[in-house]
Amino acid sequence: MKKLFIILLFLLAVNCFSQSDKDFKYIANDNDGAKIYITSQEKDGECLRFWISHIIPVRPVKNIQLKEIFFGGNRELMLVQFNCTARTYNLIKVISYDLNGKVEKSDDVKIKHEKIYPGSFMDIIATEVCKL
User: Where are the strands (E) in the chain, listed by range?
Assistant: First the structure.
């Protein structure tokens, strides 16, 4: 019964997020199987600027008492700027949401000219975005 409740809660969260994701396009799964969505890219000089939506899938994990609990279902939005030629990115803003879609944390981030490493989360995105 508890698993059914968790599954229904997850489906409700997915439904709530999907209704607000009309501007996002699915591009790939990350290395953990989480889905990655992006908005359409705006040209900003030599760079492409867009939002990334990353929804972490709900999965069971065992706590210290070996009791099965469920983790995930939350969402992150990241405003980034990619330079496809230099294979670098700027991370501008990160917004984290809980399972109910309420903002947990919103940070203005100043990460500039960070290298995109092969096999990384940003490499998965760059592979899709930079070929457009």
Answer: 25-29, 35-38, 42-44, 47-55, 59-62, 68-71, 75-83, 88-97, 103-115
Kindly indicate the confidence band of residue 57, based on its pLDDT and cuts at 50, 70 and 90. Answer: confident
Q: Which residues pair with 37 in a beta bridge?
A: 26, 53
Q: Dihedral of the CA atoms 97, 89, 81, 23 (nearest 10)?
A: -50
Contacts with 117 (C-beta within 8 Å, 6 or more apart), sequence order: 123
Q: Which amino acid makes up residue 35? A: K
| pTM score, whole prediction | 0.71
Tokens of 44: 């900003």
